[in-house]
Write a structure and sequence with these properties.
It is a single chain. This protein is of the alpha/beta class and about 450 residues long. The longest helix has 21 residues. The chain starts with a helix and ends in a 5-residue tail after the last strand. The relative contact order is 0.12. It folds into 3 domains: about 160 residues, Rossmann fold, CATH 3.40.50; about 160 residues, 2-Layer Sandwich (Dihydrodipicolinate Reductase, domain 2), CATH 3.30.360; about 80 residues, ACT domain (Alpha-Beta Plaits). Strands 7, 8, 9, 10, 11, 12, 13, 14, 15, 16 and 17 form an 11-stranded mixed beta sheet that branches. A 6-stranded parallel beta sheet has the order 3-2-1-4-5-6, sandwiched between helices. Helix 6 links the parallel strand 5 and strand 6. The protein contains 15 helices and 17 strands. It binds NADPH dihydro-nicotinamide-adenine-dinucleotide phosphate and L-homoserine. L-homoserine binds next to helix 8.
Length: about 450
């Protein structure tokens, strides 16, 4: 070592480039605490990667008395998130969730010239136009890798890795809570409510778990993925949506006997000049890779015209996987700080180039259907039901009849050929009007993939 050289070398390489990036975190729940723990554990690796530290200097929370599982000794705590936004920070990380006050805080941070990272898919799906435009006008990066797929880098893959492709189709499991619930119900026979309670305790569920089980969260995420894939503004309201309430334990069992597993799928397809956008529990052939994705794991299948099919899989919910995505955004922002122009636009397309696309009405969408019926155990039942299907030119791909106990009703499960939802609904109405068909029934879509 040359005596005295340390000072001058430091003086040459230290200045602004080596100062820590100051971060203000809004919200210290499941994801916020995991972010602080992960950052503490990986600080030296980050410094080695980018030559500077990431320092969380300010944190906003609601209840200062609540015990937190992270080190807050070097952090200024506040119950006023606005104070964190206006504090001397370079990046604001929004981990509060919901629309308000998250929307106002993110807009204020961007207007104040701060980079923003958020995991808030509800905000981006419902107020995305305003938020993405504000980021573009402010010339500030807006990271949201954590908003879809938890720890899977699906935003970066779709926006950058597949940028050379025209994307034709996205299909995947993008809500960890629903997938966890269906997995627990099917693998362990656990009741819906018990499985939901466990998902909440594991930190997978949204603050209001109806967002998970009613398909709202998956629709928020699908709106974001579709915006990137199809260069269209996020359009949450256009997404057809069904939740887990449609799935009875009998459906899980009968689907299994027919060779399928029920998965909470989100599907976006390009059809000529329009889009098909839907979220619902779906029967998937049991050997397909998506049928094998269990628990809180997410998987997204993306089909591009050049690359063909690609599949991204990993933990889609929970503190650490989500913090992994938040921290990746922070590392990228820190690395490119001062030259944000090198970053792609948030959705991969300049805002002015986004164009709304017509969305196919639900009635016109085509798929196979699974139908479960309870019927009186009398002769001619099957013939009458299949006759109504045949009238609508729907063929039966598979059928399962469960022999009843003496005097009880029989149970039928049918898989149809591919048909429009309108034709299926019409045939179903006629079938339900038959004397021997009981009022309770269940129908779910079946998805066959070409891989
Ligand atoms: P939590 O409910 O666990 O945490 C929310 C945090 O925000 C809490 O610390 C709460 O404070 C704080 N907060 C709420 N309102 C205010 C307010 N007005 N001012 C200051 N602080 C406030 O949520 P998560 O950590 O699970 O989720 C955060 C975000 O990340 C959400 O947008 C969610 O959708 C998203 N996300 C979550 C994932 C997960 O697996 N959990 C995965 C991917 C994304 P206090 O603790 O004091 O009540
Ligand atoms: N509640 C969400 C889920 C968190 O279960 O997928 C991850 O976005």
């Amino acid at each position: 070592m040359i005596k005295g050289s340390g000072t001058s070398l430091d003086a040459r390489s230290a200045p602004a480039e080596r100062t820590p990036v100051r971060i203000g975190v809004l919200g210290l729940g499941t994801v916020g605490q995991a972010l602080l723990r992960l950052l503490a554990a990986s600080q030296s690796r980050i410094e080695r990667r980018i030559g500077r530290r990431l320092a969380v200097t300010h944190v906003a929370l609601r209840d200062p008395q609540r015990r937190r599982d992270c080190d807050l000794s070097a952090v200024a705590l506040s119950t006023d998130p606005r104070a964190v936004v206006t504090a001397d920070v370079d990046v604001v990380v929004e981990l509060i969730g919901g629309i308000s006050p998250a929307r106002e805080l993110v807009l204020a941070a961007l207007a104040a010239g701060k980079a923003v990272v958020t995991a808030n898919k509800a905000l981006l799906a419902e107020s995305g136009g305003e938020i993405f435009s504000a980021a573009e006008i402010a010339g500030q990066p807006l990271g949201f890798e954590a908003a879809v797929g938890g720890g899977i880098p699906i935003i970066k893959a779709l926006r950058e890795g597949l940028a050379a492709n025209r994307i034709d189709e996205i299909a995947g499991i993008i809500n960890g809570t629903s997938n966890y619930i269906l997995t627990e119900m099917s693998r362990r026979g656990i009741a819906f409510e018990v499985a939901l309670g466990r998902a909440q305790r594991l930190g997978y569920a949204e603050a209001d778990p109806r967002f998970d089980v009613d398909g709202i969260d998956a629709a928020h995420k699908l709106a974001i993925l579709a915006a990137i894939a199809f260069a269209t503004p996020p359009d949450f309201a256009a997404i057809q949506r069904d939740g887990l309430a449609r799935v009875h334990p009998d459906d899980i069992r009968l689907a299994g006997e027919l060779g399928y597993r029920i998965k909470p799928l989100a599907i976006a397809k390009r059809h000529g000049g329009g889009l098909e956008l839907r979220v619902h529990p779906t029967l998937v052939p049991h050997a397909h890779p998506l049928a094998l994705v269990d628990g809180s794991v997410n998987a997204v299948r993306v089909k591009g015209d050049a690359v063909g099919q690609t599949l991204y899989i990993g933990r889609g919910a929970g503190g650490l996987p989500t913090a992994s995505a938040v921290l990746a955004d922070l590392i990228e922002i820190a690395r490119t700080r001062g030259c944000a122009a090198v970053l792609p636009p948030a959705l991969g397309w300049p805002q002015a180039s986004l164009a709304p696309l017509p969305v196919l009405p639900t009635a016109a969408t085509v798929s196979s259907f699974y139908l479960r019926l309870r019927v009186a155990d009398t002769p001619g039942v099957l013939r009458a039901i299949t006759a109504h299907l045949a009238e609508a030119e729907i063929s039966v791909e598979a059928i399962l009849q469960k022999e009843p106990e003496a005097g009880a009703d029989a149970q039928l499960a049918i898989i149809t050929s591919a048909v429009t939802a309108a034709d299926f609904e019409q045939a179903l109405a006629q079938i339900r009007a038959l004397d021997f068909v009981r009022p309770d029934h269940s129908c779910l879509r079946v998805e066959h993939f070409d891989d």
